[in-house]
Design a protein that fits this description.
A seven-stranded parallel β-sheet has the order 3-2-1-4-5-6-7, with helices on both faces. The mean pLDDT is 96. The radius of gyration is 18 Å and the shape is globular. It has one domain: NAD(P)-binding Rossmann-like Domain (Rossmann fold, 3-Layer(aba) Sandwich), CATH 3.40.50.720. It is α/β, with parallel strands linked by helices and 255 residues long. The longest helix has 28 residues. Helix 4 packs parallel to helix 5. The protein starts with a strand and ends in a 9-residue tail after the last strand.
Length: 255
């Protein structure tokens, strides 16, 4: 039987690559989209050493031509798409108070994080619907959001708004695509040790030390990847439009 194929946007490093690697080990063909010219050598060597079939597409999820080229490359290379992981995302270039946020920053973050997600999901869902159904699900779509979709950070409001928008996209697409056999899920990472958090590593380390997180350690990209693996499996066939917090228990309200 043909292997399933998974597209992972923003999959060249951090959470995205951890998911790509995990799904590759699960037996998926892997298609990675990222903005850098080529897959980093270390990441490429890992996939090659484990004989994980993969291809890399350079592009920006905010660009329609790049989205269409990514889908064409996936289908031309592996014949079908069974999983989409919408992981690509950016933080503001500069953290500014909500009252000082600039429109250019808002447009950039929303364009990549939310608009890109909306229209990437649209074209991949259509591809899933028209291809031969070989497995128990027509497809799986996973949105990587953040605890910031529901937690206020007034110095990066555009990021919070963008992630909250993806939370609604999860509900909308789950509602629309359930009848097509496509299940849509959301993962909300908390403080994960990646390049994006390098600049605030000391701040978050102190928060962990003071007990803000019930599981008192930094989250790792693999923590998110393992949750994605379960969603992509056939373990949740009567579940859609839901989310899992991968945040060390940060979401728990405590007195």
């Amino acid at each position: 039987m043909m292997n399933k194929t998974a597209i992972i946007t923003g999959g060249s490093r951090g959470i995205g690559f951890a998911i790509a690697h995990r799904l590759g080990k699960d037996g998926y063909n892997i298609v990675i989209l990222a903005t850098r010219l080529q897959l980093p050598k270390e990441a490429s060597e890992i996939l090659l050493s484990e004989n994980i079939p993969h291809c890399y597409v350079q592009g920006n999820i905010d660009n329609q031509v790049d989205r269409e080229r990514l889908l064409k490359e996936a289908v031309d290379t592996f014949g079908r798409v069974d999983v989409l992981v919408n992981n690509a995302g950016v933080a503001p270039l500069e953290r500014k108070d909500l009252l000082e946020m600039e429109e250019e920053s808002f447009d950039r973050v929303i364009g990549i994080n939310t608009k890109g997600n909306m229209f990437m999901t649209q074209i991949v869902a259509k591809q899933m619907m028209k291809q031969e159904k070989l497995f128990r699900k027509t497809g799986t779509i996973i949105n990587i959001t953040s605890c910031s979709s529901v937690v206020s950070s007034t110095t990066r409001g555009e990021y919070c708004v963008s992630k909250a928008g993806i939370t609604m996209l999860t509900a909308l697409y789950a509602d629309r695509l359930a009848r097509e056999g496509i299940l849509v899920h959301e993962l909300r990472p908390g403080v994960i040790e990646t390049d994006m958090t390098n600049g605030v590593h000391e701040k978050y380390s102190k928060m962990i030390e003071t007990g803000l997180f019930p599981i008192a350690r930094w989250g790792q990209p693999e923590d998110v990847a393992n949750a994605a693996s379960v969603f992509c499996s056939d373990m949740f066939l009567y579940t859609t439009g839901n989310y899992i917090d991968v945040d060390g228990g940060f979401h728990i309200q405590r007195l």
